[in-house]
From TrEMBL:
SUPFAM superfamilies according to UniProt: Phosphoglycerate mutase-like
Protein's name in the database: Phosphoglycerate mutase
E.C. designation(s): 5.4.2.12
Signal peptide: none
Organism ancestry: Bacteria, Bacillati, Bacillota, Bacilli, Lactobacillales
PANTHER family linked: BROAD-SPECIFICITY PHOSPHATASE YOR283W-RELATED, HISTIDINE PHOSPHATASE FAMILY PROTEIN
Source species: Streptococcus loxodontisalivarius
Keywords: Isomerase
Length: 200
């Protein structure tokens, strides 16, 4: 049996609805965010996927999502899969963020002068944390709940190519095949009434 990692983004939060930057800072799930998490749970139930281990970042929005999706109260927190730090832009309106450089699909190092993180470093810490966890936990089915930019940084590290304009919506699920400590993204599931699946 191929080991699987299901890495997903948290549900909608208060700051998401207010279009505020939400990286190192936190805000609670909205009712819609909770519904999104339960919709993701419905997908896993429909596919007869159960989890041997459940992890989440140390941020409330991720841990609460993990508990709803897994229907488990025992969720192990991992600091290394927390969201990117946006520095002085934290909790500020999103429109204040610097614009991507021409041809770029991420903030790259644009936030570093403002006390934030470089997306490359974010991807490196997320990958390192996942690999260290997988070396210690040999479970067949693992759920981890993280964040949009953290997941994007990881995929950049893994040289994953997405269609133009793609982004991780709330509760988007990345399904990875695990071989040793290596990860291969097989598909992305976007929870909705029809469960859109992007096969890679």
């Amino acid at each position: 049996m191929t080991r699987k990692l299901y890495l997903m983004r948290h549900g909608e939060t208060l700051f998401n609805t207010q279009k505020r930057v939400q990286g190192a800072c936190d805000s609670p799930l909205t009712e819609n965010g909770r519904a999104q998490a339960l919709l993701a749970k419905l997908y896993f139930d429909r596919e007869n996927i159960t989890f041997d281990a459940v992890y989440a970042s140390t941020q409330e929005r991720a841990t609460d999502t993990a508990k709803l999706v897994s229907n488990q109260s025992n969720v192990t927190q991992l600091k290394g899969i927390k969201e990117m730090n946006f520095g002085s832009f934290e909790a500020q309106p999103e429109y204040l963020l610097p614009k991507f450089r021409p041809g770029s699909n991420s903030f790259e190092d644009l936030l570093v002068p403002y006390g934030g993180e470089d997306i490359v470093e974010v991807g490196q810490r997320v990958l390192k944390t996942i690999q260290e966890t997988l070396s210690q936990d040999q479970s067949d089915r693992i759920l981890m709940v993280s964040h949009g930019a953290a997941m994007w940084g990881l995929c950049l590290q893994l040289d994953v190519t997405f269609p133009a304009g793609f982004h991780f919506s709330n509760c988007a699920i990345c399904e990875f095949d695990i071989s040793g400590n290596e990860l291969r993204l097989s598909q992305v599931i976007l929870p909705s009434q029809d469960f859109q699946v992007l096969t890679l």
